[in-house]
Amino acid sequence: MRNVIVLSLLLLLNIHHVISAHKGVTASLSAKWSMTPFLLETSEFIGEDGNEKFWQFVDTVKELTVYKQGESVRSYYNLVLKKAGQFLTDLQVNLLKFALALRSYSPAVQASQQIASDEPPPEACPAFVSIHGQRSCSTKDIKKLLKAAAGRPKPYLHKNDHTYPGVNKTDVPVVILYAEIGTKKFTSFHKVLSEKAGEGTLVYVLRHFVAVPKPQKMLLSGYGVELAIKSTEYKAVDDTKVKESGANAEEDNNDEVQGFVFGKLKKSHPELQEQLVELRKHLLESTNDMVPLKVWEMQDLSFQAAARIMSVPKFDALKLMRDLSQNFPSKARSLTRVAVKQEMRKEIEENQKHLGESIGVHAGDGELFINGLHIDLDIHNPFSILDILRGEARVLEGLHNLGIKGEHQGKLLRLPVNAVDDSYALDIRHPAIMWINDVENDLVYRSWPTGVQELLRATFPGVIRQIRRNLFNLVLFLDPVREESVELVKLAELFYKHKIPLRIGFVFVVNTKDEIDGSSDAGVGFFRLLNYIADEYDSSQALMSIVSMYNKVDAGETLSVDAISAYLKRKFPKANAERILGVESEYDDKRKDGALFYKNSGLGALPLALFNGVPLSPDEMDPDELETIILQRIMDTTTTFQRAVFMGQLTEGSNVVDYLMEQANVVPRMNPLILSTDRKYLDFTAKPVVDDWEDTTMFSYFDSRDKTAVMAKRMKYFTNTDEDGMSAVTVWIAGDFETVSGRKLLLGALKRVKASPGVRVGVIDNPSGKPSEDNTVLYRAIWASLLTQKNKAAAEFVQKLLREESIQLLQKGTKMKDLLMQGMDRDAFEKKFNTLEVDFIRSQQLFCRDVLKLSPGQQAVISNGRILGPFEEQEEFTVEDFQLLEKITLSGSAENVKAKVKLMGMKAKHASDLVMKVDALLTAAPKGEVRRDVHFAKDSHSVLRLSPRENEVFYDVVAIVDPLTREAQKMSPLLIVLSQVVNVRLQVFMNCRAKLSEMPLKSFYRFVLESDVNFLANDTVSPGPVARFMELPESPLLTLIMITPESWMVQAVRSPHDLDNIHLQEVSGVVEAEYELEHLLLEGHCFDLSTGQPPRGLQFTLGMSRDPLMYDTIVMANLGYFQLKANPGAWILKLRKGRSEEIYQVLTHDGTDSPADAGDVLVVLNSFHSKIIKVRVQKKAEKMNEDLLSENSESKGIWDSIASITGGGSKKEDGEREKEDVLNIFSVASGHLYERFLRIMMLSVLRHTKTPVKFWFLKNYLSPSFKETIAHMAEKYGFQYELVQYKWPRWLHQQTEKQRVIWGYKILFLDVLFPLAVDKIIFVDADQIVRADLKDLRDFDLEGAPYGYTPFCDSRREMEGYRFWKSGYWASHLGHRKYHISALYVVDLKKFRKIAAGDRLRGQYQALSQDPNSLSNLDQDLPNNMIHQVVIKSLPQEWMWCETWCDDASKVSAKTIDLCNNPKTKEPKLTAAARIVPEWVEYDNEIKQLLGQVQEQQDTATQKHTPSPSQHEKEDRRDEL
Question: Long-range contacts of range 724-727, CB-CB < 8 Å, 24 or more positions apart?
């Protein structure tokens, strides 16, 4: 019986839930474009893995859409996944599902669609080709269009266009096919075009084009939705009620919860004590009335939440964390009863101390690490996290395929892969350098201190320290007879004379012939004379002589033999000229050294300079620039030396030059091919089914990765192992060894192997013709010796075989067996050599062709998977180059990888293979930031751990989070989805804050994210993800805020409710909010190249070829920032016609999709990521002195922004009228109440003026209903209006409270919100009623101030105690000035822009807003605070009357009346309005009447087009899911 009671209690409880569960809020966000097909998004996903895969996929799904008709949506989706699965691993298929759920590739598909619409497509065409601007829907026309194509300009191709992998030719026509893959029409075009592209007669490019897009809108995900509580600190509606439920919550005896009196129940059922406690707890949690907590109850909430999360089964823990953080306001009460174990508290504190020391994370911080990469959730969103997961997948799967599991994975991942160095240095300890001075030993410098500690002594900035050490070394490579040498030598002398602590050396590159007369070759003569002077006198004397010789040379001339002889006679009359300059000169030693050193160094064209070994770039070699550059380098290098001294790496005993030359970036030779930063790598991670290369046909079917894996498996090596039997560097040589250059290359490699332990060489044959017995003789001999001989014998034999004398013997008819050497196993060799087939060489040639991209006979070198080549005809790769390559490979990561692989304990050959494969994998992976190794001191009570599934690739995810923070609201759903998408090893540390003094979270939150596409019960695809808030408390007032990725501009498009003031008590059913992603932002920074400053007031336009002016913007002075509204597609950015285009021109741009120097700036938006570009402009030569914002810079009404939604009049008239006489009124409003006030304000303005009026509204926060009805008002009352929009820039400190954001918009963006044509704008608060003609205010003389505000009234005496500006900070800051009110102000925009007022206001805002306590009334405090920098003109008092501050007597003369809040009476605005302003009610009724008529018209219109009920049913069914 008793159990029945409890059961019935629980049943009652459920009924209670059912009754209250119907109310709630849902928010959805759809894209502006139509739904894109899954098949096309999948192709884009696969295309990211390479062009080859994309086209293979396209071939596989040729006519897949045939199935679309017969199958259900779900089975078609599964079919697409199955086809994709042929090209993707299981992990990648999971990522693909996630990408499809996110619609991550939809913008890429839509971008192609938009480019197609710009073509435009011919009528009723399911697919079409465009050939150099001419279009056709039929394959039959292709031939005809190709004929004359060459005469028409080629189309511009974008970076991410899909080009068919045919023969690469530049002189053939480009054919762009716009079609939907998988359709019949596509297949017929594809067949023709792929054949022709394969033959090389055209370039075939495919762009997605869906002829009839689906009408449905597509719902997006990857954003957050917040319902913030508007009332202060959980204030319930009625105070008395609060006391009742809160008074004895903790007393067990009599407390009543939802009608149950637990005291009585416990007395009558003592044996059910435990269950009753549970029930009571449950009922308490499910009551939705939020009760304010006392301060002492809040202190421990964070720890209590953590204790609660750690107490449930770990698979439910994340869901609980999501629930607690996202619904915290209604869960807070239940958490106060959770007990926190002491050991948990202690462990959290220990871990926090450890984390603070190791990675700088403090209590309450939220951090996320994926495989050690730090994911900053302020910057990253699900779209960028998907990209990170994909990038990581390549490396993780690679390591997994190579057999690296568990702990080893993390160790290898965290290896420091040395980033490719940009500044390699050449070793300057070379005898060929003639040093002119030596700072350490020359007497000239003897007074200088010698200690390296001197570097740490403080000096004035810019002073070069004089220390007697060769810290700075300059080596000049010169040809003495070249004109450029003259200035460089003079510069060297300048440095020497001024005692700059720079050791200067010369390398003279002169003729190297043996027998040469110095009196006929000026270079040689110069060198011998120099040697003579250096020998007889000293080096510094030699330098002086060079300078005086050069001083005699006229400008534009070069040094001649006569000049040298004359100098010798004049300066050294006793010397024997013949003995010095002649053929038999005694001063000729080392003449060839310079030229040889120069040749071996691999440096570029003369003249050259090395600073501490690092070559200067050719444009730095201009003598005028060089002086500054060298001094700058000395400054920069000083800081590096200071660090080295401080860290103890450079000590008094060190030889500085040796220290410099032992750094990691010093190489024995410069070879741009080896040192280039653009590097290609082989992928060794495939696991082919068979490793057969004897069957060439089979081999040809493998893809690149499989071919590479087979080669690696079958390769044989010449080795010279380390003492541990391993080789850290594996070099493959590919070439034709029947040619001299091929043999030379291999010989060089073998010589290097002999000299260097730890290197091994494999050989691949790439014959010039089709492989046959004849053209593979040498290679088969090499291969036979590798297969049958011991390593040393094989190497010696092959070296002998490759020498030219052996080749000549073979050509004369000597048999191969006669060349064999002592100690070889002759029989085994002969047997092998005579029976080797050439099939496997055919496979090798295929590998060279398809993977290494070599033509037959071309050569390449591969070092640990890095491909160098193909080599040019004359390109040499010497033994020194092999040495350099080995050094670079080892210092990259091979050495580190080897150390880790060694610990795995495996056979030497297998270990060497693994080092090569892992090294290739890690160095090929894009260099991200440093991977952190995050671990915890203890993890038994405070770390939630989830283990990964065994024997699968796993991601190592570490989250550090306080469960009651915004980070937890975001991170918990993200971690749940992550664990569904990929296999994770998860650790979540509860990073709790202690002693909370206020509620940690004041809002409900949802993060909209799904791991896979959802389907309905009838297998149709669900409309998409939605944020649902059910079980909300009904008492508080809520405001809905969308929190989207940085570059999204969203707006509410449908909702009958007031989303700014959601009060569930007054709502029956669900409040639905529909938002739309209206624009993706294109952001940028613009600078003037000549001044380096941002060009303030410069205007850009964005459009397409058919409509060049769709959006426009103005450049700010802060960071040269600008933003433009756009959507997926290809856009053209231009300077605006008018002054911008007349004065400026675009010079270069970064981050765009056209070449940096192209005049038209082309930008492709094809993803949800932010797109930020840099543009550099310059004034045109004849406009250097003009100013964009000068007084006469009037644009003649050219501003016709697309954003303009104009009531009456065409755009052109609109512009002209603006110039004639228009009152521009700006206002902002949010929420239905303020929009009601706003309409009344507009009506009151119009009633009192005869001047045409144009209203400007901030679009960001207007409700859908206001946007719908404003046009009807404009029509009735005859005004114009425009909705302006600006996204709060990411670099400007963000406000989190909606009201403060709106205040920010009132003041911070005045210079960029309006077109330059608007000279004056008047801001009028929404809750204001105007009683005078605002034209008078517009024409009011501001006396040079940028804006005018009305001061606060002083006349109402009883409010004196509330006038905060009369005391404290404001009184001292303002001095004798007044504090102004921001409800009404007039701005002279020309003056405002000219003095950069907007930029100053933003700068001051940025400084002050970091402090949450400053700028409490942002829009009012900021201009008042800046009164000394940006002057305010005080307007006459009658322009603003408000009852709170002004006495009743002054009301008669009031020109505007504002409904200020009254801090004393707190009277509601609506009652105040009707009481204070008699005409307000009339205005209100008039507008109600108009809106009523509008509603009637709409109702009659909708009755004519009633929708079918099925749509609603579908919606309902989705709600049930």
Answer: 724/902, 724/908, 725/908, 725/911, 726/758, 726/898, 726/901, 726/902, 726/908, 726/911, 726/912, 726/915, 727/758, 727/759, 727/760, 727/912, 727/915
Spell 789-804 as b/e; 16+ CB within 10 A means b: beeebbbbbbbebbee
Rg over CA atoms, the chain: 40
Assess contact for 1112 and 1130: CB atoms under 8 A: no
460-470 as b/e: b if 16+ CB within 10 A: eeeeebebbbb
Question: Largest alpha-carbon pair distance within the chain?
Answer: 133
Asked if 1128 and 1166 touch (Cβ cutoff 8 Å), the reply is yes
Is residue 1237 within 8 A of residue 1326, CB to CB? The reply is: yes
| In contact, 158 and 1129? CB cutoff 8 Å | no
> How does residue 1349 score in pLDDT terms, banded at 50, 70 and 90?
very high
| Sign of the alpha-carbon dihedral angle for 392, 394, 395, 398 | positive
Q: Count how many Cα atoms sit within 13 Å of the Cα of residue 437 in the half-sphere of its side chain.
A: 29
pLDDT at 283 over 70: no
SS3 439: coil
Using alpha carbons only, what angle is made at residue 13 by residues 7 and 15, rounded to the nearest 5 degrees?
A: 110
Which tens digits make up the pLDDT trace of 110-126?
Answer: 999 999 988 888 888 89
Task: Give the pairing type, strands 1171-1179 and 1070-1088.
Answer: parallel
Judged on CB neighbours under 10 Å (0-12, 13-18, 19+), 378 is exposed
CA pair distance 743, 799, nearest whole angstrom? 9
Contacts of 266 (CB under 8 A, 6+ apart): 252, 273, 276
* C-alpha count within 13 angstroms, C-beta hemisphere, residue 1167: 16
Cα–Cα distance, 1097 to 1120 (Å, whole number): 10
Residue 258 above 80 pLDDT?
Answer: no
Burial profile 208-234: b = 16 or more Cβ within 10 angstroms, e = fewer: bbbbeeeeebbbbbbbbbbbbbbeeeb
pTM of the predicted model over 0.90 = no
The rounded distance, in Å, linking the Cα atoms of 204 and 44 is: 17
User: What is the rounded distance in angstroms from the CA atom of residue 290 to the CA atom of residue 331?
Assistant: 9
- More reliable by pLDDT, 1363 or 474: 474
Phi (first) and psi of residue 373, to 5 degrees: -80, 135
Cα distance between residue 687 and residue 1259, in whole Å: 57
Q: Please give the Cα distance from 1127 to 1048 (Å, whole number).
A: 10
| pLDDT tens sequence across 1266-1303 | 888 899 999 999 999 999 888 888 888 888 888 888 88
Amino acid type, 1250: K
CA pair distance 415, 896, nearest whole angstrom: 7
Asked if the model's pLDDT at residue 1209 lies above 50, the reply is no
* Local confidence band at 261 (pLDDT 50, 70, 90 cut-offs): low
DSSP track, 1051-1101: EEEE-SS-TTSB-GGG--SEEEEEEEEEEEEEEEEEEETTT-S--TT-EEE
- CB neighbours of 1434 closer than 8 A, spacing ≥ 6? 1348, 1349, 1350, 1351, 1378, 1380
Distance in angstroms (rounded) separating the CA atoms of residues 626 and 623: 5
Residue 168 tokens, joined: 């690469």
Distance CA 773, CA 780 (A): 9
Q: How far is CA 220 from CA 34, 95, 1011, 1199, in A?
A: 12, 17, 13, 34
Residue 116 has a CB neighbour count (10 Å cut-off) of 22
* DSSP secondary structure, 1370-1411, as one string: HHHHHTTSPPEEEEEEEEEHHHHHHTTHHHHHHHHHHHHHTS
**Please, are residues 557 and 565 in contact by the beta-carbon 8 Å criterion?**
no
Task: Check: CB of residue 175 under 8 Å from CB of residue 152.
Answer: no
3-state secondary structure of 1290: coil
Rounded CA separation 1382/1388 (Å)? 16
